[in-house]
Amino acid sequence: MAMTIGPGSGRDVAPQMNVTPLVDVVLVLLIIFMVITPLLAKQFWIHLPNKVEKEPARDTPDKDKSIVVSVTRTGEIKINRDVVPRAEFSAKLRRVLAAREQRTIFFDAEDDAEFGSAVEALDFARAGGAATIAVLTDPIAGR
Questions:
Q1: DSSP letters spanning 53-72
Q2: Which H, E and C letters describe 37-52, residue by residue?
Q3: pTM reported for the whole predicted model
Q4: Which of 91, 84, 83, 136 minimizes the C-alpha distance to 110?
């Protein structure tokens, strides 16, 4: 601690604190924390489920198969290559989607199909329970 004597009628004593050692200590601590912090972030915890051996379900391939709704140029609506009458389409699609966890279907219309028929099929699909309708832009292989 330093003392200064100031001008005045008498001797005025004003203490001044030397903060240089305090700044040095704080800077050293800051550098230490900056070096240690990345080392602490290298580990993280993963909670994995217990291994349970299950017998695979017999209808698994059917559940993994995508549902493709297509409209032909004659106005027929198909669900995975099966022609379905318009009156029964929503009910059949609801039954097909009931066995699945995801309610996603793929929609494809032939180039020559009427626009009104395609939109009507999309409306029927939404009424049948399809939550997500993905419109295919490329033709389906093997069609």
A1: --PPPTTHHHHHSPPEEEE-
A2: HHHHCCCCCCCCCCCC
A3: 0.53
A4: 136
Judged by phi (left if over 0) then psi (alpha if -120 to 50, else beta), residue 34 lies in: alpha
SS3 81: coil
Chain-centre distance for alpha carbon 45: 21
Q: Which of 64, 58, 83 is nearest to 72 (CA)?
A: 83
| Closest CA relative to residue 103, chosen from 134, 74, 72 | 134
Instruction: Answer whether residue 87 shows pLDDT above 60.
Output: yes
Report the alpha-carbon distance of residue 130 to residue 98 in Å, rounded.
10
Pairwise pLDDT comparison (20 vs 30), residue with the higher score: 30
Q: Looking at this protein, which amino acid is placed at residue 33?
A: F
Select from 78, 120, 76, 125 the least CA-distant residue to 103: 125
